[in-house]
Amino acid sequence: MPEPSPEPSDPRQYRPHVARNREPILAVLARVLPPRGLVLEIASGSGEHVAYFAARLPALSWQPSDPDPQALASIAAHRAASGAPNLLVPLHLDVTASAWPVERADVVMCCNMIHIAPWTACEGLIAGAERTLPAGGLLYLYGPYTIDGRHTAPSNEAFDRQLKSQNAAWGIRDLAEVTALAKRHHFALAETVPMPANNFSVIFRRGAQQGPSALARVRSTLRFASRFRDAERALRRYCDGLRLRQTRGAGDFDWT
Length: 256
Hints:
Blueprint: H1 16-32, E1 37-42, H2 48-56, E2 60-63, E3 65-66, H3 69-82, E4 91-92, E5 107-111, H4 119-132, E6 138-143, E7 145-146, H5 154-166, E8 173-174, H6 175-184, E9 187-195, E10 199-206, H7 214-249
Parallel strand pairs: 1-2, 1-5, 3-4, 5-6, 7-8
Antiparallel strand pairs: 6-10, 9-10
Helix pairs in contact: 2-3
């Protein structure tokens, strides 16, 4: 069923693709999201996705965000229409900022953003997710990708050309490049789920901040042991000298 057209004074926006992909996305989210916690959605756009998911996954709190004022107005209107108590007031969030207005979340999700934005937006997204998520936290991405530099369908290739004609910094990203970037921020690729219309759900898990390598720990231990041996030798020399002075003071040491 087509989405209703908003009244002239209604700020709600509607995107045709949302009605097509929201159920497949929901099926993945229902399976991989934690039973409770805070889901931070980046680039919520019209707000249709987050309103739909919040109503169907009520045990989770949903925090929408976007940098665009018209998008924020649309999200707020969809939130009001949904009446979902677990759908929070939308926040202005620039994904490339060094600090986000949400400091901690259990899930960061982003649908259809990184191919219609410069690569710096993808870098900001993953760096921000690293700051925001705890160990084991989930980063969920949805959209089209190339695999090993190749498009998965002719329609995606045409879409990629269209994007680059609009902005040379845009374009469908290669999954291996996104995964490599995520790895540098302590994320591991947990699952890639093929979706309708040649899209993918890409699921990363945040690992613990890596400490020193095993070799570095061994080297540190050896340096400590070396310093300990040096200190032990110095202590022995001090004690020997002390005994020598005591013996000399007693007149029992032969200096000839």
